[in-house]
Amino acid sequence: MSQVELVGPSGTGAVRRPNPLWTLGLLRSELVTTFRRWRTLALLAVLAAVPVLVGIAVKIQTSGGSGGRGGDGGPAFITQITNNGLFLVFTALAATLPFFLPMAIGVVAGDAIAGEANSGTLRYLLVAPAGRSRLLLVKYTTTMAFCLVATLVVAVSALTVGALLFPLGELTTISGTRISFADGLGRALLIALVVAASLVGVAALGLFISTLTHSGIAAMATTVGLLITVQILDQIPQLHALQPYFFSHYWLSFADLMRDPVYWDDLIHNLGLQVLYAAVFGSAAWARFTTKDITA
Amino acid sequence: MAPYESDDNTPAGEVEDVRDGRRAAARYVVPVAVVGVAAATIGLVPAFAGSGDPTLPKISAQQLIEKIAKSDVQQLSGTVKISTDLGLPNLGGLQSSFASGALGKGAGGKDGSAADPSSKLLELASGTHTLRVATDGQDKQKLSLIEQAAEYSVIRNGTDVWGYDSASNSAYHSTAAGDHKSDKVTPRDVPATPKDLAEQALKATDRTTSVTVDGTAQIAGRDAYKLLIKPKQSGTTVGAISIAVDAKTGLPLKFTLTPASGGAAVVDVGFTEVSFAKPAASTFDFTPPKGAKVTQGDDRKAGEKAQKPGPKGREKAERGAEPKTIGQGWNSIVVLDTGSKGGLPSASSSGNSTASGFLNSLGDHVSGKFGSGTVFSTRLVNALITDNGKVYAGAVTKDALLKAANAGK
Q: Could you tell me what percent of chain A has a pLDDT over 70?
């Protein structure tokens, strides 16, 4: 820690003032490091495999006879896949959003600070004239970029599989009205963005936990554990007064974009809640990270 | 010593330990403040939102009732929130399977389609639901029940009536063929909008009722009068009915039924959003999507007649003799002779003895001049099923129900 102290407060303002562009450089290097990790690539591969599995399963199940649907089970929209491949995008997102996607985010966010501390690279990052707030911001931006990329990977993989296995064309919204395929595609993109935004809260939570510990594994495990706990608590009817404040409570509201007209209430709740989580845990992470001793 | 970030110009000194602690504490104030502001916003905004009652010209109760009667809203779309708290035990899956079993039986033992409107009715009887309504003239109506990632819609366009359940991707189709009154599945027959409920409530107004105008309110962003209907009789479980009527169009916007026993409203139905513009024509167009299972309604007509819920509630058995009514006004009690000995017709005739035993455990055993039986109590409706197969049900207290049963014997 003494190394950092040497460079820290001793520098004069004019020399040490970091160039704003430097932040972009830092961000770029962070993005490259994150997305080049085998761990990240493996997570993305798992995410891309989910729609493939769902698509093939639905295809096999329905190819025997046209009436081979299994009723109400399975994720949302699954009964509509056979008549329009675009629904595979929604089904895949509905299937991955409760667990796979936030788990991947938890791994990346939990690793953000604690992983650096664990491998002893955090102090070197701080030696560079970036500043802790800036580094934290860059880490959070990288995590959010991963949210977006992970969601898009699921969506694109689902769209590809859906187009290969099932017919495309005009689709029926869940309200029973018809919309054109282009409109449907636009809604699919919007849904992917909403799903990515739904993960902002978990990302902030993971980042905060990551500043609490020096062990990357511990931070990841805690984040994923919290995620599972919250999902279970969200199912307990006695806690219904608390449930609207759980970050995962309104996740499935993205399906409201498939109504005609769109039902905004829950979508707005969801986005507001994510902003709140990001603000609370983002600022908590900042308070913790800018004041803690960096020993590794 | 802790390192500082470079853009923080606090000089290093001997008192840093103390300053560190203070600064750390000061920074943690930020997340705490964010939580505080959020909590204050969540807590206070609804309190302020409800405070602005509009000032409207005075109106008498009679004028207001006439306003409702004259109301001729042809084009409308909006969102309706329905909360029902009948005080029924939460049976979860058991309730729905029992219900579908009972209804399926009414339909002649045929498996009910998930898109069949009558099978959705029971869902509305408990909990909070969001509905969307759209109407354009006499023969274009749509009613959608918003569910988690799915939606159930009943669409009426001319003579076609469609039910579509997106969760199971199944559709239900019947043709009204101009016979509006006897058609069982038009959205009108589901008393879901505040207007339907208000009409039902106003039908009951007579000398047993006091009707007053109780100030104004803002409902779904519109100025409204509040009509308060109170039973003058004792013995009923109905405490008061409050109807908010749109000041401009006379359309009832909100309907609240509070029980005499106090507590939360038993039924609370109100628009959260309403527009009187013409809904898009495409709203009422429905073609079943490819691969959807379509059930034709015409061959089910006979069954539906039996399973349509009675005007006084769904507690009545779904088949049997014509019901009689005893008492008057709010204290009227529906009497139904199912003719089946042993009580609990719905449970025992479905051949499920465990269900029968289970139902018995939910009620109170009573006896009197009528013999003995079981009373099932909810916050609004009490029902007595006697062992010789008679059913007494009404929005009256248990004592009044037993008295009526004794007198009726």
A: 89
Spans of all domains in chain B? 61-307, 324-408
Residue of B27, B79, B153 with shortest CB distance to A286? B27
Q: Which of residues 78-137 of A touch B (CB under 8 A)?
A: 79-80, 82-84, 94, 126, 129-134
d(CA B161, nearest CA chain A) in Å: 13
Residue A67 lies in a domain: no
Can you tell me the mean pLDDT for A1-8? 42
Per the CB < 8 Å rule, is B168 touching A76? no
Q: How many independent structural domains does chain A possess?
A: 1
Tokens in use for B196?
A: 């339907």
DSSP A21: H
Cα A83 to Cα B170: distance, rounded to the nearest angstrom: 12
Beta strand pairing call for B170-175 and B293-296: parallel
Flag whether the pTM goes above 0.90.
no
Cis peptide before A261 (omega within 30 of 0): yes
Contact yes or no for A17 and B90 at CB 8 A: no
- Least CB–CB distance from A174: residue in B35, B166, B285: B166
Q: Which of B298, B266, B304 is nearest to B177 (CA)?
A: B298
Is A54 among the domain residues? yes
Q: Do A177 and B286 touch (CB under 8 A)?
A: yes
Instruction: Domain B61-307: give its CATH code.
Output: 2.50.20.10
- Chain A positions in Cβ-Cβ contact with residue B113 (cut-off 8 Å): none
Instruction: Choose the weakest-confidence range: A268-277, B189-198, B296-305, B317-326.
Output: B296-305
pLDDT tier, A17 (very low <50, low <70, confident <90, very high otherwise): low
Whether the per-residue pLDDT at A89 is higher than 90: the answer is: yes
